[in-house]
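It is worth pausing here to work through a concrete case rather than discussing structure prediction in the abstract. The textbook approach is simple: state the sequence, then state the predicted structure, then interpret. We follow exactly that order.
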Amino acid sequence: MKFNILKLLFVIFAILSVVSCEKTFPYLPAENELLDGPIEGLSIEQQVQFLKGDEFFNDDIFTVDKGLGPIFNATVCASCHAGDGKGHPFVRFTRFGQPDTLGNQFLNLGGPQLQNKAIPGFQPEQIPAGATFTNLLAPAVTGLGFLDAVSDADLIALSDPNDANGDGISGRPHWNNIPDYVQLRPNSISQNGRYITRFGKKGAAYDLLQQTSEAYNQDIGITSLFEPIDTHSGLEFDPEVSTQTVHDVVFYLKTLKAPLRRDETDSDVLAGEQIFTQINCASCHVPALQTGYSPIEVLSFKTFFPYTDLLLHDMGPGLDDGYTEGKALTNEWKTPALWGLGLSKNSQGGSYFLLHDGRATGIEEAISLHGGEAEQSKNSYQQLSETEKQQLIKFLESL
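Step two, the predicted structure:
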């Protein structure tokens, strides 16, 4: 009898514990509701390096004692890439000084990036008189290792700079000058001493080492072996961040997982996917790409689905800010990857801020601001029924 009472009490306690846990433990998001996390298949050693890079990217807050500034935009990488997602207009940044493909004429006056904050005793930068400029939001950083590993030959095959097929789409690779410290990808292709660059809003950075080193330097005011020039004085400083730390952050960015789809089998999502192709959105936002060889084995020769061609396209006068980088024209922007679009609000305070500067507060508004090579697709979207429009948007939010 005593045993049965004890057993009953144990069962009651277990039930109350489960109920209590359900009420007290926070909701655990599904894997496809999160942007962060490593790709599958990393070795133990690679997982350790991923975690080191994760810590530096998200938790390594710079102070004056650690080299911050003296002028800067942020104190930690994650302040602009919350949850590895898109930035919010509150932390957008301004780049200035290059109105054409001849180079930045304001490098001696603080270009190319405006540092709008300063440590005590210093003044933030101001945009110099006569400098053209643009405001930008930080992009999501997931899946970058896959984009980095696409071969130059594949990007050239996707390009059609003279619109030879007559579809109104004339994407082209960004053939640009590159810094000496980058290591060329296997089978890189050069053209007149320039190489294909692919990171950044204009696709002006060659690889994630360049992107990361420039971010430390221009966003936080931190010098490294790769970018040793202080943004305030213009003088060369000893590295304020170690080379190993930079490499760990680069590895972290390369091995962040690709965003995972949601609601793939929903009938409206499937209908929206067909509409996406029918109105020619897929000509620039190419659904599938393939990696070539990568030193990180799990990235080699993989098919993935980013919805970009990594090429420059004329987006029309409405998105021409009069500013450019590298050899891109002012009206040209690199096709942004659409994967993870439906999760963007999670890192943007619950609302969408889309396009390069966040001016569009919804997917439909972003579509309406497309021009240039995308004008025909925009017009086709506007001619859809309301049901078809909602199906297309539901598809985009499933990415």
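Step three, interpretation. The chain has eleven helices and twelve strands. Residues 1-22 have pLDDT under 50 and may be disordered.
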